[in-house]
What does this fold into?
Amino acid sequence: MQTIIRSTNILINGEFTSADIVIQGDIITAVSPYKSIDVAIDLGDRRIVPGFVDLHGDAIEKELEPRPGAKFPTKMAVIELDKKLSMAGVTTMYHAIGFNDEELSKGRGTEQSRELIEEIYEANKSHLGVDNRIHTRFEITSESSLETIKELITKNKVDMLSIMDHSPGQGQFKTLESWKKYHLSAYTIEDEDVAQYLEKNFQKIKLVL
It folds into this structure.
């Protein structure tokens, strides 16, 4: 089936111009001169742009838990975010899903992340409107996640892999105090949670201080 869309505001080579777009099935087969085709859907001056590709987005975390303690089912969260992405013009989304067992961030443990990846992978094959892909983010301290990540990669459920190191004393957190300040403000934890974590991982952290 062929569809022709017409507008005076189509983004082509970095500029908005008038044109007719020829679509065959799901593929744009031609961009023709404005009003060069007799039968077309005329959108007037409405803007038409290529779909946006988001290579790193963690919006799914807010969809799963929009407020601390207010958690939604994974299946529902994936579907609702897919709708929002489509309305925003995002046609390909790489969901940044962290494997972070040794961190205080909660919700990024191996099993939670596996469940989320499995849900997105299956939903993308059947009923989602946007091309939902997986950007797996592996924290180097999360050794317990290795086998799961390797399994997901082998099953072609991971489209992109990042290796992260958020240890205090380098990178994002130059000092131990900056690391503590961030975690206390960003997550629902107390000073004693931080103290327990530091005591448990003190030798590991000393290596990067």
Notes: DSSP finds seven helices and nine strands in the chain. The mean pLDDT is 87. The chain has three domains: 2-48, 52-164, 168-209.
